[in-house]
Amino acid sequence: MKKTKSLFAFLLFCFFSLTTLHLFAAEPPVYVIQVKGVINPVSAKYIVESIEKAEDAKAQCLVLELDTPGGLMTSMRQITQAFLSSKIPILVYVYPQGARAASAGVFITYAAHIAAMAPSTNIGAAHPVTIGGGTPGAPADTSGKSTMMEKVTNDAVASIKSLAEKRHRNAKWAEEAVRKSVSITEKEALALHVIDYIAPTLDSLLALVDGKKVDLDDHSTVLRTRKAPIIREEMNWRYRILDKLSDPNIAYIFLLLGLYGLIFELSNPGSILPGVAGVIFLILAFFAMQTLPINYAGLSLILFGVVLFVLEIKITSYGLLTIGGIISMTLGSLMLFQSPYPFLKVSLGVIVPAVLVTALFFIFAVGAGLKAQTKRSITGTEGLIGETGEALTPLGKQPGKVKVHGEIWKAVSDQPIKKGSTVKVDKVNHLTLHVKHKE
């Protein structure tokens, strides 16, 4: 019996020892995040926080699956700075097939410790664009836009060349991507030493980089990713909502809805709901606009167009103010976000219906509300003013009786009125009518 117990205890000890050794031998996890869309403050914050989480979790590396048309330079710089100061290796993987790393995406790819692309992807077109959309090399003008554009371009070139030297990548092509907006495929990128690997899937990429030595700022590490557990750090609902709000089309629609709500509340005081909703929409619109290249001249034209629509309701202009409002609002909408990139502009398919709906909204909805306020009441005691009736008794300073709308009222008159005369209600004082002879 003792031998049996001893054997069982020995087997139990071996089991726990093997399990513990297996746990200690397990490779640190690989964190994977995905950014698909414009590089903006929301995506930048998501990437930076994901890096911090991966560092805290002692992950051996973080993989960024990237598919972007570009974005804001300020957000891009925030991301590249986080890459350069990261305590773990960062892998940028242009994925899935058909994805691209354009504009700001080129800088982000160059800043990574390891860069890879999936088949049928492309990278390039990293030329910076100012709010006015100027191009380098254009003749100097009095406003100084060409000089400013040249400064921005030179700054971007210096930035990407420093990243190329840091990561031992092709600095010459990087400069051409910024100055000439060149783009290349994944095969060309590998041949030009812009990227390190071509991999069709994440698993194949992790197999390719397994055993690779990566130099960090203060030490070196060897990746063991072939059998490492994968942890996907998905963008939470808060980031998803904020990212959607940064869409120019969404910001534009929220701006109009906010204006609708406030003006409807002002034209119908006490409605409450339109005013509250309008303020919320405007706050959301202003949040989105802080991440976009807003043109205040365009915003002013939109507001001026709204003013013209309101004036059309109160002033007879035979449609001239409406036409002016449509033109002003259309031009303002086109100018609201000035950028040569379609993803930073309001779609024409959104502008046209929005302008037409706005014109109809002010002409009919708000117009009806304003006219209702100035229209004479037809109910209650106020509705009796101007109505005619019959004197049932002689009327004068002393109250008598009149019949109006089939109802019998107490009435007085400044002039004597005979019984049976037709009278007209002049005013109402509480429940007593002031009447006079109908002319």
Walk me through this protein's architecture:
This protein starts with a helix and ends with a strand. The protein has 439 residues and is of the alpha/beta class. The protein contains 14 helices and 16 strands. It has a 6-stranded parallel beta sheet with strand order 8-5-3-2-1-11, sandwiched between helices. Strands 12-13-14-16-15 form a 5-stranded mixed β-barrel. It has a 3-stranded mixed beta sheet with strand order 4-6-7. Strand 15 and strand 16 form a beta hairpin. The radius of gyration is 36 Å and the shape is elongated. 49% of the residues lie in helices and 17% in strands.
Beta-strand content bin:
15-25%
- Taken in chain order, the helices and strands follow as HEHEHEEHEEHHEHEHEEEHHHHHHEEEEE
Read across the widest sheet, the strand sequence of neighbours is 8-5-3-2-1-11
**Helix content bin:** 40-55%
What's the average pLDDT? 83
Gross morphology: elongated
Oligomer: single chain
Low-confidence stretches: 15-25, 130-144
Q: How many DSSP E strands? A: 16
